[in-house]
Amino acid sequence: MASAINAASAVRGRIQVPGDKSITHRSLLLNALARGGARVRGAGLGGDCRSSIACLQGLGVSVLRDGDQLVIDSPGVDGFDEPASPLDCGNSGTTMRLLLGLLAGCGRFAVVVGDDSLSARPMGRVAGPLRRMGARIFGRGGGELAPLAVLPASLSGTQIDVPVASAQVKSALLIAGLNADGVTRIRQPARSRDHTEIMLAAMGAGLEIDGAELAIEGGQRLETIDVDVPGDFSSAAFWLVLGASHPDASLEIANVGINPTRAGTLSVLKRMGAKIAIDPNPAGAEPSGTLAVDSSSLSATEIGGAEIPILIDEIPVLAVAATQAEGTTRIRDAGELRVKETDRISATVSNLAAMGARIEELPDGMVIEGPTPLSGARLDSHGDHRVAMAMAVAASIAGGESRIDDAAAVNISYPGFFDELGRVCAA
Predict the structure, then answer these.
(1) Catalytic residue of the set 313, 380, 384, 406
(2) Of all helices (H) and strands (E), which one includes residue 183?
(3) How far is 72 from 70, CA to CA, in rounded Å?
(4) Over 70: is that where the pLDDT of 427 sits?
(5) CB-based burial label for 356 (10 Å; 0-12, 13-18, 19+)
(6) What tens digit of pLDDT does each residue of 67-106 get?
(7) Is 313 a catalytic residue?
């Protein structure tokens, strides 16, 4: 599917983004570890989260829809079925990585598979540390590529140094640590999203947290909890950039999660001069609020270092903002983007260059000179939902018509994105 987008003369409206994808995955997988029932309200139901649901159902966990809620009934980790067929993670790297942590010590044989894109993405950063804990994981490419077979094994707690801060790797190790003998200690070079730690604590797990270092003792039993999922910040970021970059814009995004370990893009956009106001919701397990953004005069910035893990998913759309910012924006330390659903560095640079952006590709990022008027062009999502939405934002501020190939990739995380874009953008 290709989508045609014309420049918007004005951008106005109030938006409700889908439920947070990261929190939805964790609500499902962590409640599945416990025995009993739970409700997840406001869950994200894009393709990735549906993959997590399907995999849990393959293990004998009941997950049903009740209106806007998901109802979970789990036998607990000790009662999982041994799946009769492969557990299909679709395009979801989060599902596969967290599922490997769950399967590593559950005493069941299982095979995890994914689509062509996911099967080409290396899983060694998760599988390697799990093997050091005693997990028996086998796969293609020296054990790094799906399909991956997980055999029953006894896990032992150990100290694991994670070379690149990653919430998915950390979460998989914490989940495995619950089913290990002894204490599992994890050291990261920087903090990463802490949704897993927040939820584990709410479920009764004892965690030691000291900055970017964590420890969890095995043998702990979790209690199921109901979860209210706020709006997905990564989805909201597209609207924040559209509102700040367009010359005639005013948008509100309701009930968005603003966890500081997730919302690094807020800090970057404010640093660039974006006019963003936050109306916080009453305190909850995860901070949230309504975000308002208006047309802004943006300035270039440097993005790198410890910021990267807390904004990694938003870099393609931050690059769009940088094309409209005065000066030179440099994005570095983001080499992980090359092994996402596509090579997001290459895809972002090639698409924006086709629109006339002054942009240079680096091994671990990009350099962007601005401001530059963008022109409509033929664009390619490369099957990546975040690239598709970032280029839709760029097309909305560009002159003329743009066409985005494989625009249906947005269904991975935000099925209603193009409908919402059409609603808030005036022709």
Answers:
(1) 313
(2) strand 183-187
(3) 6
(4) no
(5) middle
(6) 889 999 999 999 999 999 999 999 999 999 999 999 999 9
(7) yes
Task: Verify that 93 and 26 share a domain, yes or no.
Answer: yes
User: Which range is least confidently modeled, 172-181, 282-291, 354-363?
Assistant: 282-291
**pLDDT, position 114:** 98
Query: Which pair of tokens denotes residue 354?
Result: 């086709």
Q: Examine residue 235 and state whether it is found in any structural domain, yes or no.
A: no
Q: Report the distance separating Cα 251 and Cα 262, nearest Å.
A: 21
248 in a structural domain: no
Residues in a beta bridge with 251: 13, 293
Res 67: pLDDT: 85
CA–CA separation, 149 and 135 (whole Å): 11
Residue 13 has pLDDT above 70, yes or no: yes
Q: Which CATH number characterizes residue 50's domain? A: 3.65.10.10
Which tens digits make up the pLDDT trace of 195-254?
999 999 999 999 999 999 999 999 999 999 999 999 999 999 999 999 999 999 999 999
Token output for 391: 């280029």
Q: Is residue 167 part of a domain?
A: yes
Structural domain for 422, as ranges: 3-8+259-275+297-426
Residues 202 and 268 in one domain: no
Question: Is residue 291 domain-resident?
Answer: no
* H-only helix segments in 74-147: 93-104, 116-119, 124-132, 140-143
Q: In which residue are the tokens 């901070």 written? A: 287
Residues 6+ apart with CB under 8 A from 203: 30, 31, 34, 222, 223, 224, 225
Q: Is the peptide bond before 147 cis (omega within 30 degrees of 0)?
A: yes
Judgement on whether residues 37 and 131 belong to the same structural domain of the protein: yes
Which of 235, 305, 227 shows the shortest CA–CA distance to 268? 305
Alpha-carbon distance of 90 to 86, in angstroms, equals 11
pTM of the model: 0.94
